[in-house]
Structure formats: structure tokens, C-alpha cells
């Protein structure tokens, strides 16, 4: 079973100096979806898995990224793990060249 992560949204949080225990906040957040980002509605479904990550940016802000985890059945294909669309054809050529070689470990003499 293989996994891929589909970006849902990223929220940028700024240093918060107000009352309370929060260290960062974003009181003017509006969800944007897609590229280029357009205002939209974000929905989380109870039957799907999500990956949530927190990043510290160079300017002192933080970002929270939400990604949907998609599990799928896959063969060992080099091109499947290439995320840059311009390099996918390169991965496919390499996969075709090495697909007929069988198990690589067969030639190891130990």
C-alpha cells in the first residue's frame, strides 16, 4: 500500500502578544484553495485521514499545513514518487529501462 498527500490548506500564524496562553495566532484567516489560491470552503470529512504539520518560518511566524492522506495500491514504479510534472517522463523512461531486469539482488555474489 502506498501513500500520497494531497494539500488541503496552510494557515500562517503570527506571534501573539495578547492575553491568554496562545503564542501564535491569525485573527484574519480566510481559507483559500488551489493554485492560484482562491477563496473557498474547506471541509474535513470524518472518514478520511489527514496529516497536520507545524513549521517555524524564518521570519518568526509559524505555518500549520493540512494534507489529506490518500492510500492506494501501487507497483514499484519510479515515476510514481516524482512530484514535479516536468520530470515524470524521465522517471517513466528509467522505469521502462529497468523493468525487465528482474530482481537486482540476483547478481550480488554473497
The helix fraction, in percent, is 10-25%
Number of helical runs? Answer: 1
User: What amount of the residues lies in strands?
Assistant: 35-45%
Can you summarize the main beta sheet? 4 strands, antiparallel
Cα-based radius of gyration, to the nearest Å: 21 Å
The quaternary state of the protein chains shown equals: single chain
Mean pLDDT figure:
83
CA distance, first residue to last residue: 30 Å
Structural category: mainly beta
In the predicted model, the low-confidence regions spanning at least 5 consecutive residues are none
Shape: elongated
Strand order of the largest sheet: 2-1-6-5
Chain-wise SSE layout:
Layout: E1 2-15, E2 24-25, E3 32-33, E4 38-39, E5 49-56, E6 62-72, H1 88-99
Antiparallel strand pairs: 1-2, 1-6, 3-4, 5-6
